[in-house]
Amino acid sequence: MISERAQSISPSLTLSITSTAKRLKREGRDVVNFGAGEPDFPTPENIKMAAVKAINENITYYTPTAGIEELRQAIAEKLRRYNGVSYDPSEIVVSCGGKHSLYNIMQVLLNPGDDGLLITPYWVSYLEQIKLAGAQPRLVQTDEENRIDIEELRRLITEKTRLLVLNSPSNPAGAVLSHSELKSIADLALEHGLWIVSDEVYEAFVYNGSKHISIASLSEEVKARTVISNAFSKTYSMTGWRIGYTASPREVAEAIARLQDHMTSNPTSIAQMAALEALKGPQTSVKNMVEAFDKRRRLMVSRLNEMKNVDCHMPRGAFYAFPSIQSTGLSSMQFSDRLLREALTAVVPGIAFGRDGNIRLSYAASTEEIERGMDRMERFCRSLG
Fold first, then answer.
1. How many domains is the chain built from?
2. Beta-carbon neighbour count of residue 179 at 10 Å?
């Protein structure tokens, strides 16, 4: 008999859509895939060569569970230099990807019966990870431009509330929280003794003068109640390498390391050496990728806003557009299913992110693919009447 815990888990719609699109492509169908949450750029050559070097030098054995010391030091230096927040390497735990890091956090901070606050729209796995810890997700609604109402947030806090999950820049909406918004959230969290889980995996992807700010950098008091989660997957196009990390107060880091001892042990030694090179090597590839995504962002949103019954706010970060399709009269599942079957274009239904009136499209695709997909979606929207 399958456990109740396993039966309660909902499958990831983002992975499901991507898998379906890839299957159709293998069958020879001309599918345009806007479902994937990963850069379409190859991993930079210097990072790949660092992995080859690690293999040739037999760096293929167990490492400390929390990661090699050199990588933890490099992450701490990156956090100090780039994010303006200081951590000792002992407060860094390297994991098997950002999703693993977030799972670790939920497991060590949440008890059965606790509540975890999620800003809607949210990344699909936050909801399931809170549930897997035996806790209850509580959803914080935002307005059409994905702004947080602090008073609404305050009303949802009870004696059961344990933590708040932040994702800025955000998946799926591309929202970037300002300094004043972060301060209001931090003040509220401190007032009620909440943990702040800050997922900063899209930190490099900000546009038009927007700036990523780590909430932990606001003050030492805020930092003491914050756990940062990040990964190498997006910034360095290393999605398949599976290297993420957390930065947190020492008691949390030690608890995460103990948990990881009995789950995965260390992340892959070869991927850790590649991640070390990613931090220490040239950053030109990151700059070039962000510039390309900015152009694609403007192209996709412009095309979406020309379509019948589609309305899209310009995202300020990440690499997703999250247009409203409410005026079509279709649910996000109906729209996405028909778009894939009738126009061979894959998008993710907004219901996966807690917003049924929207769909998510990744602009981590070539300009040519974006133009083809937008042409197909435009014709599909016209056909709806």
1. 2
2. 12
